[in-house]
Amino acid sequence: MRTSPKKIHIIAICGVGMSALAGLLKKKGYRVSGSDAQIYPPMSLLLEAAQIPLKNGFHADHIEPDTDWVIIGNAVPKTNPEVVAALERNIPYYSMPEALSQFFLKDKQSLVVAGTHGKTTTTSLLAWVLTYAGVDPGLMVGGWANNFDSNHRMGNGPHFVVEGDEYDTAFFDKGPKFLHYRPFSAILTSIEMDHADIYPNLAAIQEAFRKLIQLLPRDGCLVAAAGWPAMAEIVHEAACPVQTYGVGIVADWTASVVAVTEETISFDVSFHGKQMETFDTPLAGRHNINNALGVIALCHHLGISWNKIREAVLTFKGVKRRQEIVGSVNDIIVMDDFAHHPTAISETLSALRWKYPNRRLWAVFEPRSATSRRNLFQDGFVDALALADRTILADVFASDKLAPELRLSPEKIVADLKRRRKEAYFIPTPDQVVEALAQWATPSDLICIMSSGAFGGIHQKLLSGLERMNR
Description:
globular, UDP-N-acetylmuramoyl-L-alanine:D-glutamate ligase, 3 domains, ten-stranded mixed β-sheet, single chain, 26% strand, six-stranded mixed β-sheet
């Protein structure tokens, strides 16, 4: 009879969520291995540091004879050779959300952060406030939380903080991931049309969130952002108390800005019209005040002291790829941001206008996500990018995989921006973008590069190009 810890193999381990789950399982004492089509940083570095064996590509012999369970990524098809091997050998398998629920959420109060925008930052901040307050939560988040230098933590306290993704779960489960997360309380940041590859319309997305809301128990709490019509129509279906929040709108929790500098934003927080506290955050933008406000509301409900909340909000270091300054050359700032939806781009550029009013703002955008590659937001991107001083549009990522009649037209966005008398350029490849910017950028420029992917390593290439031009 075998007495060694049970063995778990993860198919498509290098995704942010899967690598977080792998780290959690390893810390819980399981023997973990994984495979992926490509082994790439930063997640590969996290996995290697955790001493999790990685296998490049997908092959049936990666499922070793002593494998007890297999966890299958949401983009992995049934025809994957490792999936085929697992099914043929009758090895029990889970999706990532199922595994998280089974191994980590059963005995915890699950605090789920969901919504179209702001999930990763809000989740990371919520976990940091609880950690700072000594509550010691578990965490799984779809990004790299700088305060934890990771995308997960075990935690021995009563709470587990989870980023709740509405994307589908696996080839054998097409429901949204967040329905597996046993929510006790939740923050809903927004509901808007997204994920056009799996949701036909906003009503379908709204229905997914409705199911999440209906899972909340009576003794939980729903903290919901005000100002989103699709959310306002369904929050009343929660069995638990509902508290709304928003900046500059009618809500239970409201915030008003006191002062803005390049270092911090100060804002007053009120509850039911009564001023409660003043907070400072190093994050930029109205959307980040909103993210903080949702966390403040839930943490107050959970009994965290004002002092601990205030100190944690001030010391929150944000998330990688969210307004992240990757370098500066000759007073030209190069920034990386994950924005890929018109609303997110608009909020990001507005935040940078607010924080850096004396800098010329470049927006460099690669349409890469499943939704941004489609012409669903053809006009919306024009409105959002018009907030920049100058715009560069790269070509649609993997454009050949999308029918021409469905495909976004970067050329048309550029033409529409020019009609608004905005300076805009269509420059197809990352290397061509770097070549152009290295010549055009001048001191005091801020170049915000927005993509949901690696964008051909453009950030470091641009810094190197600027260095060469500055010699």
